[in-house]
Amino acid sequence: MDGIDDPLDFKSSHLQTLDENLRCPICKEFYDTAMILSTCSHSFCAICIRRSLASEQCCPKCRTPSHDSNLHNNYDMDNVIHAWKQSRKTILDLEALDRSPPTDQPSSQNEQDEDFLEAPSSSSRRSARLRTTTSKSEGKVVNNTRWELTSDGITTLFSVIDPELVTCPVCQQRMQMAVLNQHVDSCLNGDSTIPPLPVKASIPTLGKKTINTGKKPVKIVYDMYKDKDLRRMLKEYDLPDHGDKAQLIWRYKEYVTMYNANMDSSDPVDISQLIRQLQTTEKLYSTRNLHKRSAPDTAVHNILFLSLN
């Protein structure tokens, strides 16, 4: 995410509400590996809700009793967040464009009516598009910037300038050069349909790199462990074993939380990177004297995921 963003970036109250509802109630940032509680259907970032449940076993939003066993990946939310992040700046640009003073271009009512498609009665048609305005005298597309709201809900700016097209010698339709030969073959047989552009072949990969996510840590009853037992357990997971008992417990609990949140992700990081991030997080806690708090603030959350992603 580039810079600092906020729902109030938008002028529309509807877009403000949408942007706000795509954010974790705990850290107020966009969901990062969204997890949903089956007990109440509230969603949170994986790291945020696991830290919260490690401190208090209830939903931090509605206080419904909950456990980490009630957590499930909210993949649909992850997809929505990904699409929203990609389109957010464009929508802000559209808002700015919509508020800009219109250019003085005389036009008749009939020409204005032609700019819009009639709203379809079928609910299956969810796209509203502006037609390109053509110059009737010259038959050329006017160079103008317009907007389009596509069926997938992503608004994009585009310039209604014809790309470099070629003309079919049979039916005189214009199309991309890549489909001309295929079209001509069909056109000679009476089918003047313009075929879709061919899909570019993906570059073959050598396979996804194997990630060492490490050994899954077990949950323990800390009061039953002495200092030496905690140090031994930390060493088993290649974690630092310095500090008093409170620090040892905090470190292990935080590692369990971070490990599980990492495994929640569709793109987990290597265990060595996770351990480095644990050390960074602990230093931040120590610096701010936050290691006694039950939940981290936004700065801790951001540092964690900016380094992991």
Automatic annotation (TrEMBL):
Residues 165-192 form the UBZ4-type domain. Residues 98-137 are annotated as: Disordered. Keywords: DNA damage, DNA repair, DNA-binding, Metal-binding, Nucleus, Transferase, Ubl conjugation pathway, Zinc, Zinc-finger. It is an enzyme of class 2 (transferase). Belongs to the RAD18 family. GO terms for biological process: DNA damage tolerance; DNA repair; protein monoubiquitination. It comes from the Eukaryota. It catalyses: S-ubiquitinyl-[E2 ubiquitin-conjugating enzyme]-L-cysteine + [acceptor protein]-L-lysine = [E2 ubiquitin-conjugating enzyme]-L-cysteine + N(6)-ubiquitinyl-[acceptor protein]-L-lysine. Residues 121-136 have a biased composition (Low complexity). The lineage of its organism: Eukaryota, Fungi, Fungi incertae sedis, Mucoromycota, Mucoromycotina. This is Postreplication repair E3 ubiquitin-protein ligase RAD18. Gene3D superfamilies: Classic Zinc Finger (3.30.160.60), Zinc/RING finger domain, C3HC4 (zinc finger) (3.30.40.10). Pathway: Protein modification; protein ubiquitination. Residues 222-256 form the SAP domain. One of its GO terms (molecular function) is single-stranded DNA binding. InterPro entries: Rad18, Rad18_UBZ4, SAP_dom, Znf_RING, Znf_RING/FYVE/PHD, Znf_RING_CS. One of its GO terms (cellular component) is Rad6-Rad18 complex. Its EC number is 2.3.2.27. The keyword Metal-binding applies. Residues 24-63 form the RING-type domain. Signal peptide: none annotated. It is found in: Nucleus.
